[in-house]
Amino acid sequence: MIGVGVIGYGYWGPNLVRNFIETNGCRVVAVCDAKVERRALVEQRYPGVKGVSSWRDLVNDPAIDVVAISTPVSSHFELGMAALEAGKHVLVEKPMAMNVEQCSRMIDEAARRKLVLMVDHTFVYTPAVRKVRELVTSGSLGDIYYYDSVRVNLGIFQHDVNVIWDLAVHDLAIMDYVLPERPVAVSATGISHVPGGHENIGYLTMYFTSTIIAHVHVNWLAPVKVRRTLLGGSSKMIVFDDLEPSEKIKVYDRGITLNNHPQNVYELLVGYRSGDMWAPRLDTTEALSLEINHLIDCIEHGTHPETDGEAGLAVVRILENGTLSMRERGRPIELDSRVTERAGARQSL
Amino acid sequence: MIGVGVIGYGYWGPNLVRNFIETNGCRVVAVCDAKVERRALVEQRYPGVKGVSSWRDLVNDPAIDVVAISTPVSSHFELGMAALEAGKHVLVEKPMAMNVEQCSRMIDEAARRKLVLMVDHTFVYTPAVRKVRELVTSGSLGDIYYYDSVRVNLGIFQHDVNVIWDLAVHDLAIMDYVLPERPVAVSATGISHVPGGHENIGYLTMYFTSTIIAHVHVNWLAPVKVRRTLLGGSSKMIVFDDLEPSEKIKVYDRGITLNNHPQNVYELLVGYRSGDMWAPRLDTTEALSLEINHLIDCIEHGTHPETDGEAGLAVVRILENGTLSMRERGRPIELDSRVTERAGARQSL
Amino acid sequence: MIGVGVIGYGYWGPNLVRNFIETNGCRVVAVCDAKVERRALVEQRYPGVKGVSSWRDLVNDPAIDVVAISTPVSSHFELGMAALEAGKHVLVEKPMAMNVEQCSRMIDEAARRKLVLMVDHTFVYTPAVRKVRELVTSGSLGDIYYYDSVRVNLGIFQHDVNVIWDLAVHDLAIMDYVLPERPVAVSATGISHVPGGHENIGYLTMYFTSTIIAHVHVNWLAPVKVRRTLLGGSSKMIVFDDLEPSEKIKVYDRGITLNNHPQNVYELLVGYRSGDMWAPRLDTTEALSLEINHLIDCIEHGTHPETDGEAGLAVVRILENGTLSMRERGRPIELDSRVTERAGARQSL
Amino acid sequence: MIGVGVIGYGYWGPNLVRNFIETNGCRVVAVCDAKVERRALVEQRYPGVKGVSSWRDLVNDPAIDVVAISTPVSSHFELGMAALEAGKHVLVEKPMAMNVEQCSRMIDEAARRKLVLMVDHTFVYTPAVRKVRELVTSGSLGDIYYYDSVRVNLGIFQHDVNVIWDLAVHDLAIMDYVLPERPVAVSATGISHVPGGHENIGYLTMYFTSTIIAHVHVNWLAPVKVRRTLLGGSSKMIVFDDLEPSEKIKVYDRGITLNNHPQNVYELLVGYRSGDMWAPRLDTTEALSLEINHLIDCIEHGTHPETDGEAGLAVVRILENGTLSMRERGRPIELDSRVTERAGARQSL
Question: Is B97 exposed, middle or buried (CB count within 10 Å of its CB: 0-12, 13-18, 19+)?
Answer without folding.
Answer: buried
